[in-house]
Amino acid sequence: MDSSSLADAPLVREPLHAPVAHLIRGGVVEGIHYGSVVVLGTDGEVRFQLGDIEAAFYPRSALKPVQAAAMVRAGLPLDGELLSLAAASHSGEERHIAGARRILELADVPESALGNVADLPLDPVVRDTWIREGRLPSQLAQNCSGKHAAMLYTCRINGWPLDGYLDPGHPLQQVIAEIVEDLTGQRIARVTVDGCGAPLFAVSLHGLARAVARITTAVPGTPEARVADAMREHAEMASGAGRDVAALMRAVPGLLAKDGFEGVQVAALPDGRAVAVKISDGANRARIPVAAAALGWAGVEPSLLAEFQGEALLGGGRAVGCVRPVRSLEPVVVSSCA
Q: How far apart (Å, rounded) are the C-alpha atoms in residues 95 and 104?
């Protein structure tokens, strides 16, 4: 997209979020999750919106498919499992760690060049095993290690310095920022630092949905299509075993989905239908039920979404309620609370 055709950066303001989900216990609304939701049709037009879809916000890891597409445009020669890992918020399973190490080997870059923070595995079960074995926090175990290894590989391919690859002024990050603007169709509002240490770009929820829709509708063989294919075909490498985002991609044919910290979820179909969700308080328990309802509004068969209505709320060990999308999303909710 020509830079002159880009929309202005979204406004940095307090988002005007709206109720998007109720916490129901015993038939009573015990709590309310606020947030914003956007649904795009095949023509890219907004078919449904709730809350504030135009304010600047940080997509967190939901932006990783865009970052991966930018790296492939810049020459990153990965496909399949390793490209999926480059767009991953992985669980820290051994296959994820081995994959990140393999990317570094292909790049002929030492592990010491990684600039992401050291951490324990993201998945609780994997993390508990890691601790029992006496293993310490590791950069390879941190959920963004695939992205960072791919960033280093992209630098190596282009002859860019490895040192300072996380600086927003580094050639790599300038290329990524350019593609973020290209795919979202708008200028970046702010740049800060993500949890892993990489630059994080503020766009709008609408822009995020538009970007992922452009990735899923890209011509086969293009960098964007390669990222979409890799993530869909290797969903567990982009997340992990038992992760809801991988299950969502398996359940809905052709769906590309990516989650992000602080209650962000984006998903898009090959025909350009797309949804994006931001839960204002960052609550993970509302993210998938609201996203599933949004996908229903996008035309996904409700029966495919039945398992994504959220975990039951327990009382005395039995189900007494749930997190349920608000009434404006209810026409496509396929189950109700106890």
A: 14
